[in-house]
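Re-run with default settings, no changes from the original entry. Doing this only to confirm the output is reproducible before filing.
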Amino acid sequence: MIRLYIFLFIVFSFSASAKPAQVAIVIDDIGYRATDKQVLTIPGNITYSVLPQTPYGKRIAEVANNRAHDVILHIPMESTHGKKLGPGALTSDMDENTLKSSLAQSFKEMPFALGINNHMGSHLTTLAKPMLWTMEFLKERELFFLDSVTSSKTLGRKIAGKIGVPAMSRHVFLDNHLNHDYIAGQFKQLITKAKKNQLAIAIAHPHPETVASLTKLIPLLKSHNIELVPLSKLYPAINQTSALTAQAE
């Protein structure tokens, strides 16, 4: 009996001290609708990915940044379906200078942005040269890349790795269908992936239905020993550099 109590004590102590898994939730497609500002009410360390040169994007990004949230740029990239891209888009007919100038213009609007993820991009992310130029730009400015994974043939992370740009990939899209049951099911997948791998990244969008669902679902993470963190916290190279800088100071 004593051995049993000792065993249970050890198991309980281990469980209680187990390091929480971490998830980042990125809300992208922000900027075209006045109602997009509702994303600022979602609880926790939400990361905001904002479309460049949009009517409401810059203001929402500034508010999020002032509240110490991660902000990244949601850069439109050419798709296989020829969809309209909007301002700040990167396309396959651009040369190196044009592509990098476009990125520079987008960051000029929101210089506090920490990196980018791709809006659409099912074609451009499969092309070596445009992705190389994109990663060179990010490397020079010490920015990171999140691959939205809009194509299974994406070269984003592969080329980022060769250039030395911190890069990760989206694991779950939360709101391809705008009803609570679907979003809750995707959120469950996010929890499962986080528990399995100790981290997971989700992308969602600024729909009122999404805001309402996430407001209800995010508090559940704590009961699963999962921490909602800013996206940048999941990038080891960035965190290592920050730690070294802190030590030097």
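The mean pLDDT is 91. The two ends are 54 Å apart (CA to CA).
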